[in-house]
Amino acid sequence: MLFSVGLSLVVLLSVVGAATVERVEYDYYKYHPMPEITDWMVQAVKNYPEVVTIMEYGQTYEKRTISLLKIGVNTGEKKKAIWMDCGIHAREWISPAFCQYFVREILQAYKTDPKMQAMMTNMDFYVTPVLNIDGYIHSWKDNTTRLWRKNRSPGPLNCTCYGTDLNRNFNANWGTLGVSLECCNNTFCGIKPVSEPEAQAVTYFVGNRREDFLCFLTIHSYGQLLLVPFGNPNFTASNYDELMKVGKGAADAIRSVHGKDYTVGTSPDVLYAFSGSSRDWARMQGIPLTYTFELRDDGTFGFELPQDQIQPTCEEAYSGALHIITYAHDKTFSGATATTAATLWSMLLALGVTGTTLM
Amino acid sequence: MATGELNPNHYQAQRAAKVVQHYLNTRYGSPYRLLGLHRVHSGNAEDVEDSGRKYQLEISVQEIISNTTEKCSAEVLFPRGGQQRSPQVQASCEEHLKINTTAQEEALYQQYKMNQSLLSAQNLPDSYGHIDPDMKPFWHLCIVASSFIMLNESSENTLYNMAQVANITQLATENDQLKFDCHVLLHEMVSQEIIHWKLLFTWSPPEGVKVQQMEQLPHCHHCEKPPNTN
């Protein structure tokens, strides 16, 4: 019997070994153009078919498909959810890099960490690596386009400029503060709320499932900030104290990784007042924990964060995001449910459903 | 407008402190000394009759290359209306920003003073955030020169950083000063705009950076290629 166990072990190891040798490791510490990100998404599903699916939920102005990765254990039941979007502003390249890193981390943790296993059983993660695909592609075009911010829809009549600022276009006190009505400006909020197809995609997808979402995280750069709603200084979120407490916990988690300080507060307090943000819209939908992450740095490199800072930035941001997500999960799921999740996990293990391949 | 004691993490103190950073760079910046705002410890704002608003700040600045930090006390006066727009700054730092860069600066100065072919570089940093190590001192120089503009252009409603050097070209040495033409892209945080400026400046170790000319460039939003700048 020992012999057959030993033989099984050898077979298992060689299967794992073969899988690792075959697969070309994706470099999470370089910036990737859109086609590589799309391929990476497809590969994620191939590597973790039991927990990862791609969902297409909209189209950009230039008719590109907007997709997200839905990550979670399929329990056959309606589940609570976490939302994360990256790349709403084209030039903030560290943002899509973070979404990709985040996906890799939760999938790795899922293999070995009971806590993540429980969270993935109780919740689904919806991660959009690049929301403003047209803008992101435009920022890769050449040296003169690198600092593009908006989407690529044409301006209204009589306007020769392109683009609406997607983070001013959401239906959250739209067009009232911190926006420009000049179509050439970088904070142009569009001709009306949710005029932009990218904003529409998020609005419909999240809006149709709004009771499911515990958490809405939208990732930007730069500034090293964790921003809580609302963008209007006259409106205070009903759970402002909770948002600040959890935000500060996240900032502490971030600081413990590489010593970087992230400031926590409302946009009007720590940055500037503005309306029409996706975060404000999400909070107004009733999603309790909504945050805007402004990642590194503090202005030295700004949008052009060196690639050698991708890893530390992602590591600290992951710590911060995980703090918020864990809080959201633990608040919702009592100890009893966690036990159920663990039992389900054991069942799945026994059925041999777990993936052994690396991404 | 917030008056009295300020929350050091809120935008009022942070914007005023950034102005101090720009001021310190105009005074002390060099190819091997560049200052960044590290932290605001405390701040106070008050209205000064007929003048404007005065901020008093206790901050820490970090010298980016040596990674040393030191404390500074500063006052920033944002003028109210009238002709003069630029803030006025006074600052004193503990160690008087005494980081010894003399040898490196002298070596760089001699190297480029004698250079047969004049320096020319584009896109510092590049799209991936990369700067050639040989070009870093010139990236620093353009940041220092930009600091004159950023200081001049700052108000309580702005926050400036230099986003990129589009182009730096060395011109013939003039009166023992290295001379440069720099096209910079400034990022203004509140409007989120990228503003193009062209700068003519000189530098030598004893004289520091002196800006001769600065000119804002109109940026063509809808153009596929930017207008040629020489």
TrEMBL record, chain A:
It holds the Pfam family Peptidase_M14. Its cofactor is Zn(2+). This is Peptidase M14 domain-containing protein. Belongs to the peptidase M14 family. It comes from Pogonophryne albipinna. Keywords: Carboxypeptidase, Hydrolase, Metal-binding, Metalloprotease, Protease, Signal, Zinc. GO terms for biological process: proteolysis. InterPro entries: CARBOXYPEPT_ZN_1, Peptidase_M14. Residues 1-18 form the signal peptide. Residues 30-328 form the Peptidase M14 domain.
TrEMBL record, chain B:
SUPFAM superfamilies: Cystatin/monellin. Residues 2-101, 120-225 form the Cystatin LXN-type domain. One of its GO terms (cellular component) is extracellular space. Keywords: Protease inhibitor, Repeat. GO terms for molecular function: metalloendopeptidase inhibitor activity. It comes from the Eukaryota. Belongs to the protease inhibitor I47 (latexin) family. This is Cystatin LXN-type domain-containing protein. It comes from Pogonophryne albipinna. The lineage of its organism: Eukaryota, Metazoa, Chordata, Craniata, Vertebrata.
